[in-house]
Model the fold of this input.
Amino acid sequence: MASTVDSVVGRVDTTKILPQGSSLNDLYRYYFLQGFVLWGRKDLKVDWLDKTIQNGPWADSSQLFGIPNVPLTKIDSEPILNYIFELNPSSNFMTLARTVYDIQEARWKQTGKLTAWSEGGLNVNPAFIYEFIVLPPNNYWVIQGPDQTPGVFLSQQGGHLPVVFTKTALGLQALFYTQYTSFLAQQILQNSPALYSANGFYEGMSESSVVDSELQVQTQGGIIEAAEYALSHSSASTSSTTTSKVNATSSSTNVSEAKPQMTQVMAFVLLLATAFVLTRWRKRGQRIPTSNPSEDGQRKV
Done:
């Protein structure tokens, strides 16, 4: 049916749903623009990241536990992990991914607070949150609700925030496998069954160990993607030049030395995820809850 699908897609004018001008300067938009490129749009300028990585503008390193050369753009882990697991990232993108990881590890080292910031569901109001490490023009470590109202940030919500997201912890483990990511993954896996139900993994837990028992399809998919990535990159060399560059600049556990252990851990996660998928196939009349559009103003796909 390939020709039929191509014909249908060819009739769709995507121009009106693409961002214009300065709105391109955003990791989320950069990520989804790649999809339009894959669908055949050859007129899109997608060199924003390469230019930014080389020339800035830069975020304030003093707000990021001393990590320099962080692009001044909206940053959390979600579009970064999705891009790496689903597409073919450039060396510049992998450099950015490592930098964003280093920030979160540095926060943990300097504060003792588990850090795996991303976006996801919340089992209390406002039902969905974005945890931004950087939020232009000058905000850092802020959490917003689903509408992302400018200047409106959430407090700890009775100990429910910030969330250490399950998909982010396991995603970072699959990608970098350092002492810190191993600790993160252990916290998630050791808290199963608290963080795992018959319908899949919960969203995560807060820094103060309050379980976020919301279920989201993105989390289940993200964990499966992370497991597949770990298993497919379990050889001694992940991506020759990128991996060697990462290892040379990191003080954490060497990736290649830890790969066998990582494979075992992520294989366990993959088995759990596969069991979950099979369970859902047997229960076709049911569905995993996703964000309620009436609560958060949008449906996460």
